[in-house]
Amino acid sequence: MTLGNNETTPMLPRRQSSNHWNKLKHKTMLLRTLLVLGILAGLVVGIAALQYGHPGAPPPPFNDNDDWHQALDALAQDAKGCVDSLTRVPGEQYINRQNRLFDTMQQEGVFAYVMEPSATLLYYTNLTWSRTERPFLVVFTDDRQMTIITPAFEATRAKEQWIKANLPTAINPSMVEWVEHGSAFDTVRNVLGSHNSQSQAIQIEPTTRYFIAEGIRTSVDHSVHVASLTLQQLRMVKTQEELAIMRCANQITARAIGTVQHHGIHIGMSEQTIEQRMTEALHRVGLTETWVVALVDANAAFPHGQPGKPHDVTPSSLVLIDTGGQLYDYQSDTTRTFFIDPAAVNHTIKAAWRTVHNAQQAVLDNIKKGDSCAHVDLTARNLISDAGWGDAFTHRLGHGIGLEMHEEPYMNQGNTKCFLKPGFTFSVEPGIYVPGEFGIRLEDIVVVNEHGSLDLLTDGLAVDPWTSSSS
Ligand SMILES: *[C@@H]1O[C@H](CO)[C@@H](O)[C@H](O)[C@H]1NC(C)=O
Ligand SMILES: *[C@@H]1O[C@H](CO)[C@@H](O)[C@H](O)[C@H]1NC(C)=O
Asked: Locate the Peptidase M24 domain: which residues (predicted)?
């Protein structure tokens, strides 16, 4: 049955006793009272939240309980989720890497690319070797050949290292030895002489030591230059496999900081003990080659630490932790600055924290592929300057990261010739440093995604100065 348009349904049946109306009045009054109380409570919470400089929930009380070992177990369990699902970069990718290198050499008219043991060598060959005074060199020539030049007495070890590198047989380098009383550089000349090319240009990997670059220059008849930016940039473009490793490495680093922040720090703790706990957390999540900078209060104004006088944590402290490690040869690097008790930190410092956070957010929101590295820096820098802290942001905004902790591209306002490409990974780490008073830095790693915008390689930016980044 349907009701006609004009028919009304009474809100209440007419046969109601006055008793009911009284009850209803009481109820309404009760509701009004509750409403007023609710508004008041909301105002109190709102004002408290504003006090803390963040319009969210007020911070949880600082956890001074010793649940450190339990928290470490939970962290390790959580990290297994991503670490166990990863594999090293597969062997076929080394074929792709070398093919891209050879293609680029041909396009650029480069006859030979010479490298010492380095992240670049690791990238193309999965070979590790320690640099010593005896040159160990790898030469790629534009006829798509790879030659290992080794001290003769180390030839057996060089072969073993090559077997350990375990690359597909499609990559089949020749090995040339130079004897102890001979010259490695004459050997380079002979190797080059055995390959034909139209081009005369030789490029040297940028981290090559001077005596080696100069030794080659004086031995060969070719022109010798440092690798072009195009050649250097080849390994800045990360593949999905590399990004999966880097994402996991940086996520577990940020989570490890959160665990130290909420379960590892006590009032009265020294910077050194915070560093020890941070190291323990990084090892528990499965990172190697770990490093930590933990700074309290005024010491945080030294961007790279090494302050004169150690500071211990007080209830009104701010703590800066900059840390990272290695996972399958790839690096992580994350910084968080947080307050022990936000209520005890003054407005100036809270405003500075918010400014640094906003600078990170501005970069995430606005930067896209094709932007210059200078523009990336300036996007954060202008925001910090507009907030009145321009002079206190004393370093570049960030650095590339991958097999090396610091590598190209550098986000520096002077770096106007570098332009973002999909696959570039770099840190976004604005800071505000007031010597003798405080320092704040927040750092997350980002990647330029295939659509050209930025994706975080951590779980998320720090939420506020007392919540850890993730979860
Ligand atoms: C690269 O070398 C390491 C040993 O240094 C080895 O564990 C790894 O499996 C190698 N990578 C590939 C793709 O075989
Ligand atoms: C807040 O902290 C800053 C930085 O240490 C300091 O310069 C300023 O005097 C402080 N303000 C108050 C009201 O304590």
From this structure: 245-450
